[in-house]
């Protein structure tokens, strides 16, 4: 197992995790989430385990920043109230979805992720994350930070490890670029979201990334998701290029069940038969995700349509569908961007959109 100096290490067996996720909740089985009291005593925990053994439930312990849970899978004919009333148990829930901990069925209150400096992500708070597709140079970093600060934007996006369709395209400045960027952004009070592509990159990136992005191509890289479950930083998980909503939610379940509840889901467009634009932004998914999960939902209109002239419309539609935030590509000179220039807004175009998006959010919240 990996060990990260700044991260939470979990004392439960890795091999047991998600033994329950493989459609194990079939007709004869049910899954329960047992929320433990913060100060459950050792003997209360032992009694609970005994009870679960007695009824032949398989169990997994999940400990996160926010809670301590036991996930039990076993026979459906068992009445969960018999456990719910035991001492040391805060609550108990039965969850029938294939995804469990990320489901809204048991946690009615939406997850709001807080970053240092009072930044909030989730229901009731609208977040804009903007920046270039790729971090390119010191000058570009400075100009972008200046642009964001002027517009009250507190999270900057940018890739230092770029997944590119062609191996001959620019693939990013790597860890040195990230350090440079981090120092400049933090001086200006701006947080960083950046993509991690491999488990091996996490440890070096950890001090310099405020939010880890998992890209569409890695949406079901379960080793990466497991590892990000063990870090103490939020994760923005993008939907796979051909990923279903259920697959996205189950991918998020990997992160949560490994100990990290601070997850955002991102709709960034999917592959369809339509070739008129880069991807088909699935606005439907935003509305549905807000209903299925308590996690924040972020929209990426830049990749969602892939054409600059429509990014504003798609962004506004995403907000109306329920998005808690927008992640978008901006560049001082989009036509000179090292990657994704065709879908990147110039600073004046972006400024106009920031205002419109804030208005759209206010309007939606008033409905
Ligand atoms: C990006 O954010 O620049 C990116 C590569 O996104 P995606 O993984 O959605 O293609
Ligand atoms: Mn991009």
Helix and strand arrangement:
Layout: E1 29-36, H1 42-54, E2 58-63, E3 68-75, H2 81-84, E4 89-94, E5 113-115, E6 119-121, E7 127-131, H3 138-150, E8 155-157, H4 174-187, E9 191-195, H5 199-205, E10 211-214, H6 222-228, E11 235-238, H7 245-257, E12 263-267, H8 283-292, E13 297-299, H9 301-305, H10 308-321, E14 325-329, H11 347-365
Parallel strand pairs: 7-8, 7-14, 8-9, 9-10, 10-11, 11-12, 12-13, 13-14
Antiparallel strand pairs: 1-3, 1-4, 2-3, 5-6
Bound molecules: phosphoenolpyruvate and manganese (II) ion.
Describe the protein in words:
The protein folds into 2 domains: 88 residues, Phospho-2-dehydro-3-deoxyheptonate aldolase, domain 1 (Alpha-Beta Plaits), CATH 3.30.70.1140; 253 residues, TIM Barrel. It is of the alpha/beta class and 367 residues long. The N terminus is likely disordered. 32% of the residues lie in helices and 19% in strands. It starts with 28 loop residues before the first strand and ends with a helix. Strand 5 and strand 6 form a beta hairpin. Helix 3 packs parallel to helix 4 and helix 6 packs across helix 7. The site of phosphoenolpyruvate has 9 residues, from loops.
Q: Which structural category do the helix and sheet elements fall into?
A: alpha/beta
Coarse morphology: elongated
Task: Write out the strand line-up for the largest beta sheet, numbering strands in chain order.
Answer: 7-8-9-10-11-12-13-14
This entry's quaternary arrangement is single chain
Q: Supply Rg.
A: 21 Å
Which class of the largest domain in CATH terms?
Alpha Beta
Tell me the strand percentage band.
15-25%
CATH topology of the largest domain: TIM Barrel
Summarize the amount of helix as a percent range: 25-40%
The total of helices stands at: 11
What is the H/E string? EHEEHEEEEHEHEHEHEHEHEHHEH
Largest sheet: 8 strands, parallel, barrel
Number of strands: 14
How far the N terminus sits from the C terminus, by CA atoms, comes to 48 Å
Q: What small molecules are bound in this structure? A: phosphoenolpyruvate, manganese (II) ion
């Amino acid at each position: 197992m990996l060990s990260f100096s700044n991260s939470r290490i979990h004392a439960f067996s890795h091999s047991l995790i998600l033994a329950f996720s493989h459609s194990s909740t079939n007709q004869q089985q049910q899954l329960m989430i047992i929320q433990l009291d913060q100060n459950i005593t050792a003997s209360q925990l032992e009694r609970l385990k005994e009870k679960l053994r007695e009824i032949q439930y398989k169990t997994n312990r999940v400990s996160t920043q926010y809670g301590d849970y036991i996930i039990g899978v076993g026979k459906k004919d068992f009445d969960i109230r018999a456990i719910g009333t035991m001492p040391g148990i805060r609550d108990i829930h039965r969850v029938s979805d294939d995804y469990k901990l990320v489901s809204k069925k048991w946690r009615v209150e939406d997850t709001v992720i807080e970053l240092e400096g009072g930044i909030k992500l989730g229901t009731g708070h609208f977040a804009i994350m903007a920046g270039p597709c790729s971090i390119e140079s010191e000058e570009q970093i400075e100009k972008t930070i200046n642009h964001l600060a002027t517009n009250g934007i507190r999270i900057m996006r940018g890739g230092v490890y770029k997944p590119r369709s062609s191996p001959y395209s620019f693939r990013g400045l790597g860890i040195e670029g990230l350090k440079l960027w981090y120092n400049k952004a933090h001086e200006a009070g701006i947080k960083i979201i950046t993509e991690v592509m491999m488990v091996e990159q996490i440890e070096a990136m950890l001090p310099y990334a405020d939010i880890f992005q998992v890209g569409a191509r890695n949406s079901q890289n379960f080793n990466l998701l497991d590892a990000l479950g063990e870090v103490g930083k939020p994760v923005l998980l993008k939907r796979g290029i051909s990923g279903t909503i259920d697959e996205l939610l189950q991918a998020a379940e990997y992160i949560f069940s490994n100990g990290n509840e601070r997850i955002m889901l991102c709709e960034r467009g999917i592959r369809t038969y339509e070739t008129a634009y880069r991807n088909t932004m699935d606005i439907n998914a935003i509305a549905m995700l807000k209903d299925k999960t308590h996690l924040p939902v972020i929209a990426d209109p830049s990749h969602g349509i892939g054409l600059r002239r429509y990014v504003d419309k798609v962004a506004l539609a995403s907000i109306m569908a329920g998005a808690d935030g927008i992640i978008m590509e901006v560049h001082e000179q989009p036509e000179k961007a090292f990657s994704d220039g065709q879908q990147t807004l110039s600073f004046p175009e972006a400024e106009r959109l920031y205002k419109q998006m804030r208005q759209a959010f206010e309007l939606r919240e008033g409905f």
